Amino acid sequence: MYHIKFNIRCSTEVVYYFFKIHTAIISKRIPLKYTMRFVQVGHSHKMNEEAFIRGCILFGIEYEKVDTVSDISGQPDLIWAPGFWIDPTLFPNTKFMFGPQFFVFPTKDGSLAIYKKGSVADRCLYNCLSEWNLCIHSAFLSNPVVPYACLPFGVDTESMKPNPKVQKKEYILIYWKLRDSANMQHVVDILIKNKLLFKVVKYGFYKSDEYHKLLLESKLCIWLGRHESQGFAFQEALSYNVPLLVYDVLDMKEEVNDYNISAYASYHSISLSATSAAFWDPICGEKTTNPKDIDPLLKKMMAGLDKYRPREFVERELSDKVCFKRMLDRFGLLS
Q1: Mean of the pLDDT values across residues 160-187?
Q2: Quick check: do 7-153+319-331 and 172-317 share a fold?
Q3: Do 155 and 314 meet the contact criterion of CB atoms below 8 Å apart?
Q4: What is the mean pLDDT of residues 205-228?
Q5: What is residue 16's predicted lDDT score, i.e. its pLDDT?
Q6: Considering only CA atoms, which of 268, 161, 266, 177 is closest in space to residue 215?
Q7: At 217, phi and psi to the nearest 5?
Q8: Comparing C-alpha atoms, which of 234, 197, 196 is closest to residue 215?
Q9: For the chain, what is the HEC assignment?
Q10: Amino acid 51: pLDDT
Q11: Domain ranges of the chain
Q12: Span 172-317: which CATH code?
């Protein structure tokens, strides 16, 4: 007998996703015994939300999503508030994970700076996702009322994996997201010079299933992206075991719009150190910020693609189980 309780108020798409996961678990005949209750208040990035749900299911935790604080009943074991502050004293027995969508940069007059009702740092944190983003947050607000933490959301390695029945194509994939067109032209010129076929995936102009199909077929991807605090599309490529040649950024100001105007031009006087590869290991591929390195690194990778094993890194550091356990450990919620 399997008891499933759905306490979820969100989009039809996420509801369908929730039922789909539960159906898969029941088909494997895994008993669901809720040990804790986690409540999400408000909306988050779709991929964050789906990963959080998968984690709850993996660890037998009841998941509920509500719109407002007044919708929360009782004292949940954990409240996740992705986009706004909740007074922790309203739930004295509850752990809180805030973020990662409060702001781009914290301010000295924001909720993480002005809360004055006593210390709640022992049971609350703000999730910055990755180390470089934590450093940026600390530069803008060095003493938040709750500590910063790096707790990336899990990658669905069960559905995003190589298929040995799919033959790799000869083309190289280029992923282009909000980087100067001159950078893109540089990459294209190198591929043409080396007589290499390529396909381009441009951010905002593709569907997820199309991208995943290309990853299944691709033997190599050149990554030309802006900064990423986590970077799901980046990590999906790694999960499909596609080695990446990352033409990395040094600063958030390298993100541009369609007119090659920097999205952070107003911060021209300060450093906003960043990276496209928030989580990385040399087994994932090669990485550089120097355009002169692209050609020799491409040749190096093409001559030895078999030595790269990006999926191993994702399974070790970014799978659903690993990421959710990391969060539970951080809150001391694993017995």
Answers
A1: 98
A2: yes
A3: yes
A4: 98
A5: 44
A6: 161
A7: -95, -15
A8: 234
A9: CCCCCCEECCCHHHHHHHHHHHHHHHHCCCCCCCCEEEEEECCCCHHHHHHHHHHHHHCCEEEEEECCHHHCCCCCCEEEECCCCCCHHHCCCCEEEECCCCCCCCCCCCHHHHCCCCCCCCCEEEECCCHHHHHHHHHHCCCCCCCEECCCCCECCCCCCCCCCCCCCCCEEEEEECCCHHHHHHHHHHHHHCCCCEEEEECCCCCHHHHHHHHHHCCCEEEEECCCCCCHHHHHHHHCCCCEEEECCCEHHHCECCCCCECCHHHCCCCCECCCCCCCCHHHEEEECCHHHHHHHHHHHHCCHHHCCHHHHHHHHCEHHHHHHHHHHHHCCCC
A10: 99
A11: 7-153+319-331, 172-317
A12: 3.40.50.2000
What pLDDT, on a 0 to 100 scale, did the predictor assign at position 32?
55
User: Torsion over CA of 209, 242, 272 and 49, rounded to 10 degrees?
Assistant: 40
Q: Is the pLDDT score of 254 beyond 60? A: yes
Using the predicted structure, report yes or no on whether residue 4 has a pLDDT greater than 90: no
pLDDT at residue 333 above 80?
A: yes
The region that residue 260 occupies, defined by phi over 0 for left and psi between -120 and 50 for alpha, beta otherwise, is left
User: Encoding tokens for residue 103?
Assistant: 């702001």
Q: What is the pLDDT of residue 299?
A: 98
Q: How high is the mean pLDDT of the chain?
A: 92
Q: What are the backbone angles phi and psi of residue 256, rounded to the nearest 5°?
A: -130, 160
CA dihedral 89, 94, 97, 103 (to 10 degrees): -20
C-alpha neighbours within 13 Å on the C-beta side of residue 301: 24
Instruction: Examine the pLDDT at 101 and tell me if it is beyond 80.
Output: yes
**Cβ-Cβ contacts under 8 Å for 176 (sequence gap 6 or more):** 184, 200, 201, 202, 203, 224, 225
How is domain 7-153+319-331 classified at the CATH fold level?
Rossmann fold (3.40.50)
